[in-house]
Amino acid sequence: MLELTSISKSFADALVLDDLNLTVAPGSRTAIVGPSGSGKTTLLRILAGFETPDAGRIVMQGKTLFDEANFVPAHQRGIGFVPQEGALFPHLNVADNIAWGLEGTRQEKRQRVEALMEMVSLDRQLATHWPHEISGGQQQRVALARALAQRPSLMLLDEPFSALDTGLRAMTRKATADLLADAGVASILVTHDQNEALSFATQVAVMRSGRFTQVGTPFEVYTQPVDEETALFLGDALVLPAQLKDGRALCALGEVLTDDDKATGQGRMMLRPEQLRVTACAPHESEISILDVDFTGHLSTLTLALAGQQAPLILKTVSQPGWNPGTAVRIDITGKARVF
């Protein structure tokens, strides 16, 4: 559906995008996730036609949007764009915001607007409201309806949920993902929120310093990150030095199965918090004890002392009763450690 080949972009002497390659399947949801300044928004603006790359090729549905000899302007690309916070026209009401750019008679526009409002689950009574009279979540739905009004083949979403509170953010994200899937519109979401990327997408592209460090399904990039930095960016992780041999790792927690039977010698391994179960036990049953507990409800951050280890171990895990400084604990591990 969409293919990016060797896309590069510089501003002055700063290389912002460095030889990017990406394929987006029809009807799929891709999330581009990375820290601020990694090049995410620049890439989105290039896809929309707001910026021109220095090199590379962009093809959508067999049509070349950009290469050395071609450049299709933004208004001819058939690509929808939903910016941060919706960016609605303050001087237009909800209906007129959605109808902006639509062609046809007044009756045809009204019918199309009503259909779009129903599609994004907006009450028709909001049609005459002004943007400042509706909630943040409703504003995002209006922006989405306005973008869908043009019947795009691809929808670009530039951190559209960042201004919403946590509960509304999750609900709006889920509704948007379902809506785009039902409409058969491929989408690309740019975000710095790893949870948002993993929840929204069928494909995740992790971006760092203008390059994709890893592209894969949400499960793949979370469970099999290519390096420590990617692992830690995508969620909480425990990374430890280990002695590797025959698919096993000897580390501060003991011997652990790994996902690499061929790795030997000194290396590093990663475990996700859900692979670890920490339970209180009698002092003679374990050489691990709690130094500090930071309780935040469902999760707690434990600072642990390990016999023979000078540095404490910091671990975020599901809260359990009986955790106090000085308590001896046992750590049980499920699954395999990721080897770097």
From TrEMBL:
Give the record's GO biological process terms: quaternary ammonium group transport
Q: Where is the ABC transporter domain?
A: 2-234
Q: What GO molecular function terms would the record report?
A: ABC-type ferric iron transporter activity; ATP binding; ATP hydrolysis activity
Q: Which Gene3D superfamilies match?
A: 2.40.50.450, P-loop containing nucleotide triphosphate hydrolases
Q: Which GO terms describe its cellular component?
A: ATP-binding cassette (ABC) transporter complex
Q: CDD domains of this UniProt entry?
A: ABC_Carb_Solutes_like
One short Pfam family name for this protein?
TOBE_2
Entries under InterPro entries matching the protein: AAA+_ATPase (IPR003593), ABC_SmlMolc_Importer (IPR050093), ABC_transporter-like_ATP-bd (IPR003439), ABC_transporter-like_CS (IPR017871), ABC_transpr_FbpC (IPR015853), P-loop_NTPase (IPR027417), Transp-assoc_OB_typ2 (IPR013611)
Give the top-rank taxon of the lineage listed in the UniProt record for this protein.
Bacteria
Report keywords, A-Z: ATP-binding, Cell inner membrane, Cell membrane, Ion transport, Iron, Iron transport, Membrane, Nucleotide-binding, Translocase, Transport
Q: What is this protein called?
A: ABC transporter ATP-binding protein
